[in-house]
Amino acid sequence: MLPELPPLPALTRAEGDLIDRYLEAVDLLGRINPAHDGDTYRGLRAAQALVRKAAELRDALALMHRRGETELHGDTLARALRVLDGRRRAARVALPPDGDG
Fold first, then answer.
1. Structural contact between residues 81 and 56, judged by C-beta atoms closer than 8 angstroms
2. Which backbone phi and psi does 22 adopt, to 5 degrees?
3. How far apart are CA 17 and CA 40, in angstroms?
4. What angle, 0 to 180 degrees and rounded to 10, lies between the N-to-C axes of helices 74-83 and 13-32?
5. Would you place residue 57 in the very low, low, confident or very high pLDDT band (cuts 50, 70, 90)?
6. Average of pLDDT values for 61-76?
7. Would you call 49 exposed, middle or buried from its count of C-beta atoms within 10 A (0-12, 13-18, 19+)?
8. I need a labelling partner for 35 at 20 to 30 A (CA). Which of 21, 42, 65, 91 fits?
């Protein structure tokens, strides 16, 4: 049986959309990362999808701003990212450690 995940912190709908769109963009960037093995077609498809996800991320932030949500609450949003496996997902974007030790 899988361990129970901690609950997501209370988020507005716009904050939830922001987190979702951000993680989707991170996943795509991880697929594009040239430091990882893979084929160019996979990276191309991810790059094409990233354009759409970036627009959705922009729209989520614009909606928050229009609604008067003018500040990002980093601690709360970081907790949500941790619950949604953001650390592992974001690690695919980073440069892998040196192979020589």
1. no
2. -60, -50
3. 30
4. 60
5. very high
6. 93
7. middle
8. 21
What six digits make up the tokens of 2?
A: 């899988």
Amino acid 82 reads R
Residue 95 · residue 34 · CB < 8 Å:
no
Which residues, other chains included, contact 36 with Cβ-Cβ below 8 Å and sequence gap of 6+?
30, 92, 96
Paired tokens of 101: 């030790």
DSSP 36-79: S---HHHHHHHHHHHHHHHHHHHHHHHHHHHTT--S--HHHHHH
| CB neighbours of residue 12 within 10 Å | 13
pTM here is 0.86
Are residues 56 and 18 in contact, defined by beta-carbon separation less than 8 angstroms?
no
Residue-wise pLDDT for 2-24, tens only, equals: 677 788 888 999 999 999 999 99
